[in-house]
Amino acid sequence: MGTSKRRLLDEALAGRKWSAGSELNEFFKEVWSQNQGDNLTFLCIGTDRSSGDALGPLVGSKLIKYGFRHVIGSLDHPCDSLNFKDRLEAIPQNHQIVAIDACLGTAPSVGHYILARQPLLPAQSVGGMLPPVGDYSVAAIVNVKGPKPYTSLQMTSLYQVMCMAEEIATAAASAFGKIPNLATKHGSEPAVLD
C-alpha cells in the first residue's frame, strides 16, 4: 500500500470504533437532531451481485419503503463502483450525506458497525480506489477479511447481511420518526424481514 493511501486510510479510521447494533438508534438520532430539514441524502453503496456487498442496496430499498425521500442506492438502482461518481454528482450540494456500505474486518468484529461523523472509504476492503464520501458513515462488518476479499464478500452469509440491513434501516426509521421507537434485536432474536 502506498504512503499516501496508507495516510488517507489512517486518517479515515481515526476516532472510529466497533459499535453494536443497539448503538445505531442513538447514532441516527444524532444525525436527525443535526439535520431535521430536507437536506439529507442516504447513499447506500453496493451491488446486488454479491451477497456481502448487497447490504447497501438492501438498506436503501428498506429506507425507501419507510418513506425516506432522498435515497441513492437500492436493489433496483444500486450505487456501485461502475456508477458511483455519477450517482454522487446527482446529490444536491447543500445535502449532508449518510454513507452506508458493507466492509470486511476481523472475526470478533463481524456483526458490528463502524459509526462515524466523517466519510467512509467505499471499496477500501477490496482494494478499490473510490473517493471518501459522507458527512456521516455506517460501515457494516459483514465478514472476515481474508487473502481474497472479493471471495469473502461472495461467500458472506446472506442471512447475516439481511439482518444487518434490517437493523440499520429500522434504527434510521425509528430515529427519524418514520416508525414507532423500537429497540433493535440483532444477535438476540432473528430480525423480521419483509
UniProtKB/TrEMBL annotation:
The keyword Hydrolase is annotated on this UniProt entry: yes
InterPro entries assigned: Pept_HybD-like_dom_sf, YyaC
This protein's encoding gene: yyaC
GO BP terms in the entry: proteolysis
SUPFAM superfamilies: HybD-like
Pfam families given in the database record: DUF1256
Record organism: Paenibacillus zeisoli
Keywords: Hydrolase, Protease
The name this protein goes by in its record: Spore protease YyaC
GO molecular function per UniProt: peptidase activity
